[in-house]
Amino acid sequence: MRYGFLGPETTFTHQALLQALAEAPEDLRAGAELIPFTSVATATAALVGGDIDAITAPIENSVEGGVSGTLDVLASHDRITIVAEQIVPITFVLAAKRQMDLSEVRAVASHTHAQAQVQGWIRENLPGAAIEPASSTAAAARAIAESSEEEAEGLAAICSPLAAEHFGLQVLARGIEDTKGAQTRFVIVTRNSRIPARTGADKTTLVVHLPHNRSGALLEMLEQFSANGVNLSRIESRPIGDALGRYSFSIDAEGHLEDRRVASALRGLHRMCPQVIYLGSYPRADRQRSTVDVATADDSYDDASRWVGELSRMITPVP
Amino acid sequence: MRYGFLGPETTFTHQALLQALAEAPEDLRAGAELIPFTSVATATAALVGGDIDAITAPIENSVEGGVSGTLDVLASHDRITIVAEQIVPITFVLAAKRQMDLSEVRAVASHTHAQAQVQGWIRENLPGAAIEPASSTAAAARAIAESSEEEAEGLAAICSPLAAEHFGLQVLARGIEDTKGAQTRFVIVTRNSRIPARTGADKTTLVVHLPHNRSGALLEMLEQFSANGVNLSRIESRPIGDALGRYSFSIDAEGHLEDRRVASALRGLHRMCPQVIYLGSYPRADRQRSTVDVATADDSYDDASRWVGELSRMITPVP
Amino acid sequence: MRYGFLGPETTFTHQALLQALAEAPEDLRAGAELIPFTSVATATAALVGGDIDAITAPIENSVEGGVSGTLDVLASHDRITIVAEQIVPITFVLAAKRQMDLSEVRAVASHTHAQAQVQGWIRENLPGAAIEPASSTAAAARAIAESSEEEAEGLAAICSPLAAEHFGLQVLARGIEDTKGAQTRFVIVTRNSRIPARTGADKTTLVVHLPHNRSGALLEMLEQFSANGVNLSRIESRPIGDALGRYSFSIDAEGHLEDRRVASALRGLHRMCPQVIYLGSYPRADRQRSTVDVATADDSYDDASRWVGELSRMITPVP
Amino acid sequence: MRYGFLGPETTFTHQALLQALAEAPEDLRAGAELIPFTSVATATAALVGGDIDAITAPIENSVEGGVSGTLDVLASHDRITIVAEQIVPITFVLAAKRQMDLSEVRAVASHTHAQAQVQGWIRENLPGAAIEPASSTAAAARAIAESSEEEAEGLAAICSPLAAEHFGLQVLARGIEDTKGAQTRFVIVTRNSRIPARTGADKTTLVVHLPHNRSGALLEMLEQFSANGVNLSRIESRPIGDALGRYSFSIDAEGHLEDRRVASALRGLHRMCPQVIYLGSYPRADRQRSTVDVATADDSYDDASRWVGELSRMITPVP
């Protein structure tokens, strides 16, 4: 199996893919080949083209919100489905060639984006250190790893925990990000249009276009979920692109296509919306099972169908 | 075929049954036997017991509202269904043995209930006439019919148009009721649990019990209809009988069980309500076809089911 | 104060009025004159005309449902308001001139309506007793009370507990009704358009006409209540009288006009409905306080109004 | 008056500000000073700090969607309000020092972002031209303007129509963007917390946080608008930033704070939501008046308030 991810190596997306593989059955792990891509679009093209078997991409960030690039790419391809999700804490470490005291650190290298997220910590803990830009956090870590002992003297990199481990660096400090608790959610997407079986703690991802020029359409759309007792864990608007004020909605619903309540909500959406794109049903990363009201349990749907079916057999056929 | 009705002969219920037979196919009309009953309960018992094949009973009056007796009896029997409805205008005539001028009328006989509905007209048009009570409007008409010419001199009856015709009386004045436009709706009920095929202008009658102790249950119940684009033409509360404030609802919905939108609403009700009693789908008396939004047309339900069905085939079977 | 009630004396309505007076302040009780009327309509006319100060009438029965006569009369008069409610258990006693064993009872007198409600008990406990019709349960009780000892030998009346007490009879058996737990709710109505102050456990009664020819109007009407967190304890349809399928709704809502959430719901109804008749806010008979969500508490309404008021002061006046 | 805008000069934001000034009264135009800023955040800081009087910023793009930077900055400042909007078509021109035939163009300079949007047109119309990167479309235009006639020979810039005009270039081709019809909406924001008076064709912008852990909260929020007949022309989710799945919503509603229906919806939101940020009411760029149902017209709100006010005066004061 060939797995693409948004690279370079040791990004948080790489981390998400490693987490996913750690949970996967032995046969998916064995011989897995991990291939970095420079964008979600190129990775998706490779997936659709058959060059790789799955991709991992960020979909939602607790600080920045939905990852537009991923949402738009997924919505524009048929026959690819999300089969899993992974949540990765966004945390940084200070790492060096060898263990040293913070007072020994004279220069800190990293990507400007990462530096912005740790500047408070640096100011407080390394007030005298020089800041050296690098093309990526991975590059910063790798440069130190490849330096000689002397060159690396007093040098540290700000990078992901995975980068430190990957390049064999020693961690001087962990959790040095200024905003604690940030997380990014990643999805694993495959081509072969297989939907993992229901686990009871699942999520279903959709993109829904609303009917044009119809006041209250968003309300009606949401009522299809509430009438079936389906909770939403994420809803995000994305422009359709043809005019101001025209939006589609990217949605994560609690439950699996195998759940009657989810299937019923999908049917309702399909009836009322010009377009509904089903992106997959897959186990929730937190394994938390949904609480289902008796009125929207599978049995209730089955009983109701059976009842209406029996009534329907009483209809006199037209001669 | 033996047809029961709420008697005696020449009641408005009798009129409704005659209207229904006039519209029925020849084989249902030929040899029809019409049998008056003293109450809807006894007629229904005869129907359930197999003594008769159908009954006609009033269900809704434009002045008094739902006919509780009929609603409650229908809701308490299984395996009887409404197969047709008839609307009869509630109008009275002044009738006599022979044509005469109003100034010749010296006494007017009728049931007190009918007299109450024409008292304005009588005061204005027959100020000097004596009022004579009768046990029913039919009895008043029959008495005059059976009198000799001399006995009937100056006598008139207030009765239904049907009674005047049935007993061979001459109509002196029509439409003498003080409130114009009153109507009663009647239903024809059969035992054999057959539902007439859809005509495109149909009505479905239900009794629905709401979940106990659940604020907003009525709203949720109505949303099952609105989510499927089904209009209600009648909704009436009836006490369940076990405590104050506990109600069931008697409902006429536009559409037929064969309409996907009606079947879908019924399934929703069955899921959320402790009891749903289906009383039949039948042609509307006014033959007015429902306007159906494209989102709730049969095709939309079928397309949606097909789409979800195709998605479901992508689910990986559990090994 | 002169209090009218649906008579004759010792009816359950009489009982309701006595209960209400027992709870009333001393000055309302002192010198109270209780006057039976033969119908709610005549009592209401006397109230509106100023002959009496208040009336007591049944409004809802746990077995029969809403009392149409009372609902329709209340809805058709301005300037009368419900100021209190009373709930009376519908229960019957077997009473006689003196205590005796059931085996000594040879004849039972009552109104046919009451007999119908105790026939199971009579069949089981007094299989040999003769049934004697009376014009009312009160008349049956009074006749025994006014008989001589010999005449009353072996005679018993089926009547209300109040009638037995009122006419000085001895109770041979209590709670002899076949259906246990039936209750009737009564309202006390006054003319002077005073609304009792809020107690925190109140009810508000309304009659609402829905906009004509507007699908979903009932749903919209109910949403005015739910959007303000107001629960309904009773909703009943009544025909408007001008055509089949045209209904008004008689409603009991939890809360008082002084509650912001109730006032807000009333404003919403007034906007959307062709007619809203306010029939009063009054303490609940069961003294049960409503649970109010923080979003619909008075403070939330006041805060919201203050906030919008402050914003509105920022609007630039048109020069 | 000092007006800040997202620069540099000749950006589409600059264009929006010029459009706004063209519509403004003479006294606002006279002596207006236009000051470019490098980010919405710095411009907003200058506005809040009192250095400038208004800013112009992009808020929504028909292709990319909401402009997160602007939305987030506006939501995080008190006492600044949107007072106007402008819509600018996103269109590019090919411009040169002097008029020339397309076949004479040998090199085309622009910012890479603009080049991406016209690459189809360039491929087709200038297949042989060299592509020269510039730091901005303005810089590309300015460089040609400042070149000598000989230096500028065969050189053209891809820039906004405004840039061509501003730098005195000749337009060789208009509307050369590959995607036609793209538009960006801009807002003009002031500090002094003044809300322009209602014009009848207005828009109100809000940011709303939903109650936490409450299924159906989005539905309830939208119902506050629909219950008051207020349409939404834009709704966008933005992460609150503290956890995955926690969103606020940025909303444009049709109508003005002076409209009773908008004020009523705002009160409802304030009651149910932990935070509601009012960002202003202002004339719609398209001057299109909202259609208002009679039930949500100002008069209906006023009548309803008057009616409930009169009822409330009937409440007996607590002694």
Automatic annotation (TrEMBL), chains A, B, C, D:
Name the chemical reaction catalysed here.
Answer: prephenate + H(+) = 3-phenylpyruvate + CO2 + H2O
- Its top-level enzyme class, in one word, is lyase
Output the CDD domains linked to this UniProt entry. Answer: ACT_CM-PDT
GO MF terms on file?
Answer: prephenate dehydratase activity
**Pfam families for this protein:** ACT, PDT
The Prephenate dehydratase domain is annotated at 2-191
**UniProt keyword annotations, A-Z:** Amino-acid biosynthesis, Aromatic amino acid biosynthesis, Lyase, Phenylalanine biosynthesis
Q: In which pathway does it act?
A: Amino-acid biosynthesis; L-phenylalanine biosynthesis; phenylpyruvate from prephenate: step 1/1
Q: Which domain of life is it from?
A: Bacteria
Q: What is its EC number?
A: 4.2.1.51
Ranges for domain ACT come to 206-283
Q: Which PROSITE patterns would you find in this protein's record? A: ACT, PREPHENATE_DEHYDR_1, PREPHENATE_DEHYDR_2, PREPHENATE_DEHYDR_3
Q: What is this protein called?
A: Prephenate dehydratase
The species this protein was found in: Brachybacterium kimchii
